[in-house]
Amino acid sequence: MTRAALLVLADGRFPAGGHAHSGGAEAAVKAGRITGAASLEDFCRGRLHTAGLVSASLAAASALGIDPVALDTAADARTPSPALRVAARRLGRQLMRAARATWPSAELDALAREFPKGAHQPVVLGLAARAAGLGAEDAAYCSAYECVSGPATATVRLLSLDPFDATAALARLAPELDVVAHQAVSAARRALDDGVEVLPAASAPLLEISAEAHAAWAVRLFAS
């Protein structure tokens, strides 16, 4: 295993399609819930401990080799918003293309055949990590980091926020990223014995509601 592969997978320049999505930040900016670095940090913290924990757990479970079809069903059940389910599958399809080109894998090929329109992104991420020789902890960290780095990058564009301030906000969240990644891996290991039902199902109703409103906008900068 080479941990350097994690740098490739987590790199914002990896062609996985994340640059087109704001992780709910665009709707939050328009609603006045993100107005600067402090409110961005609060938004990312809330997202990390809810949607981020769910995604990191699914990614870790996928990296451990738990049935990706069962995990995809679990992801659907934990994503009430149709708009977010569509976004997750689009991101999963794009990540699948990039991962198969970078780390060819029979498991990735099988999942691509099972879900030609895309599996949920965290499930694909976990299998991509597995194909790259990475472990559950790596997948969890990558997923948790994406959960906050996406909104931070989007907010820089949406508000012309100083990128130094956005990066500082992410750095202050680092200890909480550690906590979430640890929780995610622990849950994924329990799921090996007890099934996917034990994975976290943390709720973020405002993200879900905002995603539905955002999907109906006639003009928007980001796909989600």
List descriptors.
224 residues, 70% helix, mainly alpha
Topology of this protein?
Blueprint lengths: L3 H7 L14 H6 L6 H27 L4 H10 L4 H21 L3 H9 L6 H11 L4 H24 L3 H10 L1 H21 L10 H11 L9
Helix pairs in contact: 3-4, 3-7, 3-8, 3-9, 3-10, 4-7, 5-7, 7-8, 8-9, 8-10
If you had to describe this structure to a student in words, what would you say it looks like?
The chain has 11 helices and no strands. With 224 residues, the protein is an all-alpha fold. The longest helix has 27 residues, at 37-63. The relative contact order is 0.23. The model has no long low-confidence stretch (mean pLDDT 95).
Would you summarize the structure shown here?
With 224 residues, this protein is mostly helical. It has helices at residues 4-10, 25-30, 37-63, 68-77, 82-102, 106-114, 121-131, 136-159, 163-172, 174-194, 205-215.
Please mark out the parts with pLDDT under 50 across 5 or more consecutive residues, or reply none: none
Number of helices: 11
**Strand content bin:** under 5%
**Element pattern in H and E:** HHHHHHHHHHH
Q: Report mean pLDDT, rounded to a whole number.
A: 95
Number of strands: 0
Structural class by secondary-structure content: mainly alpha
Q: What general form does the structure show?
A: globular
Largest sheet: none
Give the N-terminus to C-terminus distance in angstroms. Answer: 34 Å
In which range does the helix fraction lie? over 70%
The gyration radius over C-alpha positions equals 16 Å
